[in-house]
Amino acid sequence: MEISHEPQNLQFKDRRADALGNFSRLPDELICALLDYLTPPDIARLACVSSVMYIFCNEEPLWMSLCLKKVNGPLQYKGSWKKTTLHLEALPNECIDFRRKPLQFDGFSSFFLYKRLYRCHTTLDGFAFDDGNVERQNGLSMDQFDQEYDAKKPVLLAGLAECWPARNNWTIDKLLLKYGDTVFKISKRTPGKISMKFKDYVSYVKEQHDEDPLYIFDEKFGESAPGLLEDYNVPQMFQEDFFDVLDGDSRPPFRWLIIGPERSGASWHVDPALTSAWNTLLCGRKRWALYPPGRVPLGVTVHVNDEDGDVNIDTPTSLQWWLDYYPLLADEDKPIECTQLPGETIFVPSGWWHCVLNLETTVAVTQNFVNPRNFEFVCLDMAPGYQHKGVCRVGLLALDEGCLENMEKNMSCDKDNFNYSDLTRKEKRVKIPRSQESENHEGIANGASKRYNLWKHGFSYDISYLAMFLDREKDHYTSPWSSGNCIGPREMREWLSKLWVGKPLMRELIWKGACLAINADKWLECLVKICSFHNLPFPNDDQKLPVGTGSNPVYVMDEYVVKIFVEEGMESSIHGLGTELEFYNTLCEVNSPLKNHIPTVLASGILHLENGSYKIDSWDGKEVPDVLAKCNLIPEKGKGDVFPFGVRSKKLFEYRKAGSPESGPGSSAGSSSIWPYLITKRCEGKIFAQLRDELSLDDTLNLASFLGEQLKNLHSLLYPSFGNSSVSDVEQECSSANGMDIDFVSHKLDIPAEWELVVRTLGRKKKDVSSRLKKWGDPVPEKLIEKVDGYLPDDFLKLLSVSEENGMKRALKPLSWIHSDIMDDNVYMEPCCPFGSNGIAAATGNGSVNGHDNSGEAKSWRANYILDFSNLSIGDPLYDVIPIHLDIFRGSSCLLKQFLQSYKLPLMQKTPERGSFTPSDKFRRLSYHAMCYCILHDENVLGAIFSIWSELKTAESWEEVEQTVWGELNNYEGVA
């Protein structure tokens, strides 16, 4: 296709109106945006509609977008994006290679298409770029860097890479010889993951004429090409990185190989988690533009989600910003700039906006890091809430006029007294209006100056100032976690705990960060109050931070453990402790062997905040305490319930929550200042998660046997009967309270009310299963999400394998107490001698918790305790196998088989002679039952499955996933 850009001849008639009809009223950029939503076949058909549609539908940027949305994996460029897309559509080669001279049409012009075409074909060697105004230093000492630049301002450093092998080896030609067949990840703003062999990428670079060319931006280059890591060293002044204490997948991405052609680059952004970064250029030239924290660049829009604090940035491409926006800026509004040359390293401090444009084909390496200077900013950025994130990035533009007025009044009186309670929120999102392409250049330039003045007005990138915008009511354990955070909430707590232990000289700083990120000061105050009430020793300095990666604050002292229940809000927490106390009571009544393998309960109660001070009521789970009655938290009606918030009430609560569109973290009703707690005796030993890599095969097999035995004890316990009226009672309450339609099972059931409640809860969860899986996102394949409704049963009653004899229906599936959360941090192990006098491994008598005796001889380990029964419920025993197999066994069929050999209980009763099911029926497959539970699980169980079995990301059906993950269950004789 060719578009004539000659001056319009008067004899040419404007063909736009006739060719577009009613669409002629739309601006060209909107038409192009609408086309981007169509499929390649639709675009091909639309190109035949009219001459102007032919022009729009043959634009290379459109086909580039179509292609990148379709590809998910290795990409091979075919000379044009249209050809590449058609190859992905699997068209015959004769159709793809069909050659016809592109059609040309007069009487049509488009300034929008012209500018885009210009950006695709312009070269940058003719543009004049000066050295810029970023300071350049050579031979900078560590002390100078700390005092003058770290966390303060950018600097260009020379000489740091002179001794690197990469200084000579990292040219395109040399890299091509050594790594031509190596696959690298490609950066592009699309949902799919794109990668290319390096030789294919080099071919693309030579052929492409893209406005925003693809570039290599690979954080896993050290795994795919380990030799590259040997070619450079982290400069001394950047070597301290607090994320070093995290291992493997727990550590967020921190280093990238960056290779890009002329016109490519990184658009405006602030580095993740407000980390700092260094970037060393090995070949080519880069142009940098930087703004201080809080000063949003012209043309950029920042969105901060007020639910989870996730930050999204809309920005023009790097090239488009330099061509269209930069010329509009007054001198005082222009960014700090520099041209980076080969061998130079640029330092980008925490929170600084930056944009990079490659003037030539470049090769670079970069790393982000956390050190004492930016540690508190990183912790602040991962704290729950949203307003502080907006202020960190766009300064006072994140606040509405009312907030600004309050801020000015408070700061004029006493800045130290300014706090979040003075702020009000009128907007749902922080939005910085993005300037559109316009002829009114003067208005845009004036807007930039106004924004610059607002940025200067009182904003300070100071941790004390920024912390004032935290929402102190938001809690790390119960508030939604931002998907944009570089690590998850459990990894965050693990990180702080490891820093606390590993860097004792920096505990004052780490404590400040923990108070920002996880409300450590609040939870410590709660802990001290609990210890005082029960006359227990106060925590020492080593015990100030909560431990573990669970969803509740847990403190481990010398002799005891305190767990404060906060997960999913007050109502859920009350039911969690109430059920746990009921369970312990049942264990004692029947004197179950399981009692010897769970922590001993020392005390329990309810902590609540009244008039600014903490108060405590002892609570053994029986009756309804006054503090709960006052906040209208009344359990479901039941006859003679000894534990009003026990498992019966909890199951009804879960049923009600499953049908609520507002269910989710932090959505539980009730006060946010009431927390139940439990004190247990401390167990000797270590959690399995700490020992996984050092255990022998025999130790691991013994662990599987131990879990089988204890799950048999758990599932053999009698559970409290719900009675026959439970479901109808809660249906009436839900219907009258919420005005919601109640979904009834298709026919009258003659099965226990407990099973009926389980079945109905599963049915409610299925209603929004597709949307839930999409929210989990990668790595659940899209094609499986599309098939999930057809895979799950239309009536979950079928999972019970209900049989009918003499007019009576009964379920062939057992029902029992279930732990629901036996994972690698909920199993304790103790050191033991390899073999005792009787040939059985014996526990050591010295109370060692490190696996060694006084002689230093290593011992084997055996499981001794199962922890954390706060997720106790009643349901299918098979449900407990899911976390054990996926988290503890990591998918090992050998360990699962060992577990089942010790478990021995039937997971499904034998089919009666008159049963309506046959062994070939999917409802008789335990693997099918387990897969259904995985799909409907409250946690992202599927994420674990597709991480362990990465080959299943290309699975064509759920049956394929089911057999790979759970096929061993079908060999279990308990279902015979």
From TrEMBL:
Cofactor(s) the protein requires to work: Fe(2+)
Domain JmjC as annotated: residue spans: 223-386
Pfam families per UniProt: Cupin_8, F-box-like
UniProt keyword list: Iron, Metal-binding, Nucleus, Oxidoreductase
Protein name: F-box protein
Residues in F-box domain copies: 20-66
Family per record: Belongs to the JARID1 histone demethylase family.
SUPFAM superfamilies (alphabetical): Clavaminate synthase-like, F-box domain, Protein kinase-like (PK-like)
A GO term, aspect molecular function: oxidoreductase activity
Keyword Aminoacyl-tRNA synthetase: no
GO cellular component term, pick one: nucleus
Broad class of the protein's primary localization: nucleus
InterPro entries: Cupin_8 (IPR041667), F-box-like_dom_sf (IPR036047), F-box_dom (IPR001810), JmjC_dom (IPR003347), JMJD6_ArgDemeth/LysHydrox (IPR050910), Kinase-like_dom_sf (IPR011009)
Gene3D superfamilies: 1.20.1280.50, Cupin
Location of the protein in the cell: Nucleus
